[in-house]
Amino acid sequence: MIQLALDVADGMDYLSDQKFVHRDLAARNCLVNANKTCKVGDFGLARDIYETDYYRRGGRSFLPIRWMAPESLRDGRFDTLSDVWSFGVLLWEIATFAEQPYQGYGNEEVVHYVRYGNITLERPPNCPEILHKLMHACWAFSPGDRISFRSIVDELVPYENEDFRLNAYYHTQPHLPQDQILIVTND
Question: Which GO terms fall under biological process for this protein (predicted)?
């Protein structure tokens, strides 16, 4: 579990250094190879629409509301910190072996509760403490209080495997300043 989380966090650290915002980070958009290395995928090229995973607001584009940060739901704001929120939901998916977030709630309920900070996902059974701690650091209601992808990788590096040590962005590239990029949509 932890190595999968580390692989995705490393990929997202790279994307944030490149000033790229994913906007749809979820388990369904991560690929695992034969070596069990996890890679971030689906940059808007493929759109498998699962009715309960996406929500169409006002007849506009589909939105992955169960993975969206409060500010994205309220204001249509997407940046690296909204991707961090989604990463927290992805951690929950990893720990639950891909259960649907906010099971038992309708899409409208999820939008309402997350938008105003009235709901968080519970700790899954057998979830490692480090993942639970990171989930909460990702789900800080105020974007400025959220952990960065670089800090997530820093927290998970003690659990790295040899393949990660040899190939990870974290170990092979110089780190750039963590400036935030902002995308505002009217969707």
Answer: glucose homeostasis; positive regulation of MAPK cascade; positive regulation of phosphatidylinositol 3-kinase/protein kinase B signal transduction
- Contacts of residue 116, defined as CB under 8 A and 6 or more positions apart, other chains included, come to 70
Q: Please count the residues of the chain.
A: 187
Using CA atoms of 184, 72, 86, 92 in order, give the dihedral in degrees to the nearest 10: -170
When divided into structural domains, the chain yields a total of 1
The pTM assigned to this predicted structure is: 0.85
Q: Which CATH number characterizes residue 45's domain?
A: 1.10.510.10
79 an active-site residue?
no
For 77, the domain range is 2-184
Q: Which residues lie below 8 Å from residue 165, measured CB to CB, with a gap of 6+?
A: 171
Within 10 Å of residue 180's Cβ, how many Cβ atoms?
14
pLDDT tens for each residue of the chain, 187 residues long:
999 999 999 999 999 998 889 999 999 999 999 988 999 998 763 333 344 544 445 456 678 999 999 999 998 889 999 999 999 999 999 999 999 999 999 999 999 999 998 888 999 999 999 999 999 999 999 999 999 999 999 999 999 999 999 999 999 876 555 555 555 555 5
